[in-house]
C-alpha cells in the first residue's frame, strides 16, 4: 500500500490500526445526561485489561430503568425512596399505629348510633363525608385521574364484597362487643388462604394448614356454637371476614392493573349506591324482631339532629384519615413489616369497649383472640418466607375493610 493512500479520502471503513492504538482512542459514554470520557492512553499498554466501563454503565442504566418500571407499576415502591430505609420503615409503622388508633373510634361512633339510625343510612353518610377526603388523598398520590380500572368485573366484585363486609360487620357490632367483633373479623387471613387455593391455584403447605386449623379453633372458642351463650350476631362477624377475603382475592386478580386511589374511589361510590338502594328497599318495612342486628338493618332513615350530623361527619373524617394513614404505611414500608402491627387494633377495641360501654371480654374471648392472632401471624410469616409479592407489598391487612 502506497504512502498517503488514505489521505483526504472519506470512507466508512477506517484504516487498520493496531489494538494498542484503538484502545488509546477516547471512549465517550453517555449516562444520565453526563459524558464520561476516558483519558487517551488509559489502556495503551497491550497487557491492560479490556474496557468494562461501558458494560458497567449500561448495566446500571438498565437496572435503573427496571427500577423505574417497577415503581410505575407499583407506587408502593416509590414512597420514601429518597429517605433512609430505616427512617421510612419507622414512619410507615407510625402511620399504621395512627390508623389502629383511629378506626376503633369509628367503631365506637357507629355502635353508639346503632340504636337510632339504620345501618345503610350510616354507610351512606359516612361514605359521602369520606369521599372528598379520599379524592384529596388520591390527588396527593397522583392517582385521582385518569382512573386505572384494570377490570370492571373485578373492581365491582371487590367493591361489592367490601360493602357487604362493612355492612354485616356493623350489624354484628350492634349486638356484640367491639373486641369480640374485631377478633372474629381478624380471621380474614384464614379465608384468604382457603380461597386462594380454590381460585388462584395456590398450594397450602403443612404450616399454613396448621394456621388455618388454629384460627378456626379460635373462632369456635369465641362464637361457641351450640352453647347457651351463643350469639347469632357472631356469625355476621364471621361473614364479614369471608366477604373481605373475597375482596382481597379480587384485589390479587387485579394486580398492577389498578391502583389504590382508583380502588378506594370506586369502593366509596359503591358504598353510596348500595346504601341508597338498601334505604329504598327497607324503607317502610317493619320487623317485630327484637334482635339489635336485624333492627339495625330494617330501621327507616331519619333526619339527623345537629349532634348526629357531627357524629356522621366525624365518621367520614376518621375513615378518611385512617385510609390515608394505612395507604402511607403500606407505601413506606414492606407489608410483611407493618401488617403485624394491625393487631394493635385489638387492645384499643378492648379499651374503648370498657371505657364507653363498660364491657370487658370474657376469658373465652381472650383465648380465641390469642389463637386467631397467632394463626394470622403464622400465615403472614409463611407467606413472607415463600416470597409472595402480594404479601410483601400489600399484605393480608384486615383494617382496610373499615
Automatic annotation (TrEMBL):
It holds the Pfam family EamA. It is found in: Membrane. Belongs to the drug/metabolite transporter (DMT) superfamily. 10 TMS drug/metabolite exporter (DME) (TC 2.A.7.3) family. The keyword Membrane applies. Keywords: Membrane, Transmembrane, Transmembrane helix. The chain crosses the membrane at residues 90-110, 122-147, 167-200, 207-227, 233-251, 263-285, 309-330, 342-360, 366-385. Residues 91-223, 233-380 form the EamA domain. Coiled coil: none annotated. It comes from the Bacteria. It is a multi-pass membrane protein. Residues 1-83 are annotated as: Disordered. PANTHER family: ACYL-MALONYL CONDENSING ENZYME-RELATED, SOLUTE CARRIER FAMILY 35 MEMBER G1. This is Membrane protein, putative.
Amino acid at each position: 500500500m502506497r504512502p498517503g493512500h488514505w489521505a483526504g479520502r472519506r470512507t466508512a471503513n477506517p484504516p487498520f490500526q493496531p489494538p494498542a492504538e484503538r484502545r488509546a482512542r477516547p471512549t465517550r459514554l453517555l449516562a444520565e445526561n453526563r459524558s464520561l470520557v476516558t483519558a487517551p492512553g488509559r489502556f495503551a499498554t497491550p497487557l491492560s485489561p479490556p474496557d468494562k466501563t461501558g458494560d458497567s454503565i449500561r448495566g446500571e442504566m438498565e437496572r435503573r430503568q427496571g427500577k423505574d418500571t417497577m415503581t410505575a407499576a407499583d407506587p408502593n415502591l416509590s414512597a420514601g425512596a429518597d429517605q433512609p430505609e430505616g427512617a421510612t420503615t419507622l414512619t410507615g409503622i407510625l402511620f399504621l399505629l395512627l390508623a389502629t388508633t383511629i378506626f376503633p373510634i369509628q367503631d365506637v361512633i357507629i355502635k353508639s348510633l346503632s340504636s337510632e339510625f339504620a345501618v345503610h343510612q350510616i354507610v351512606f353518610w359516612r361514605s359521602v363525608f369520606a369521599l372528598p377526603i379520599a379524592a384529596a388523598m388520591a390527588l396527593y398520590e397522583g392517582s385521582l385521574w385518569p382512573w386505572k380500572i384494570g377490570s370492571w368485573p373485578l373492581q365491582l366484585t371487590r367493591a361489592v364484597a367490601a360493602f357487604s363486609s362493612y355492612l354485616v360487620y356493623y350489624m354484628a357490632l350492634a349486638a356484640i362487643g367491639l373486641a369480640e367483633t374485631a377478633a372474629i373479623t381478624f380471621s380474614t387471613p384464614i379465608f384468604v388462604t382457603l380461597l386462594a387455593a380454590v381460585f388462584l391455584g395456590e398450594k397450602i403447605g403443612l404450616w399454613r394448614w396448621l394456621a388455618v386449623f388454629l384460627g378456626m379453633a379460635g373462632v369456635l372458642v369465641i362464637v361457641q356454637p351450640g352453647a347457651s351463650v351463643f350469639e347469632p350476631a357472631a356469625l355476621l362477624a364471621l361473614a364479614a371476614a369471608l366477604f373481605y377475603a373475597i375482596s382481597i382475592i379480587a384485589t390479587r386478580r387485579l394486580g398492577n392493573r389498578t391502583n389504590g386511589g382508583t380502588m378506594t374511589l370506586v369502593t366509596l361510590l359503591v358504598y353510596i349506591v348500595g346504601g341508597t338502594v338498601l334505604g329504598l328497599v327497607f324503607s317502610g318495612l317493619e320487623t317485630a324482631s327484637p334482635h339489635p342486628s336485624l333492627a339495625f338493618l330494617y330501621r327507616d332513615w331519619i333526619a339527623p339532629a345537629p349532634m348526629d350530623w357531627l357524629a356522621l361527619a366525624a365518621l367520614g373524617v376518621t375513615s378518611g384519615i385512617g385510609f390515608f394513614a394505612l395507604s402511607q404505611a403500606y407505601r413506606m414500608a414492606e407489608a410483611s413489616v407493618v401488617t403485624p402491627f394491625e393487631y394493635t387494633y385489638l387492645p384499643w377495641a378492648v379499651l374503648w369497649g370498657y371505657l364507653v360501654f363498660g364491657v370487658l371480654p370474657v376469658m373465652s374471648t381472650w383465648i380465641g383472640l390469642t389463637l386467631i392472632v397467632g394463626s394470622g401471624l403464622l400465615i403472614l410469616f409463611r407467606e413472607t418466607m415463600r416470597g409472595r409479592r402480594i404479601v410483601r407489598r400489600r399484605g393480608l391487612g384486615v383494617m382496610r375493610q373499615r
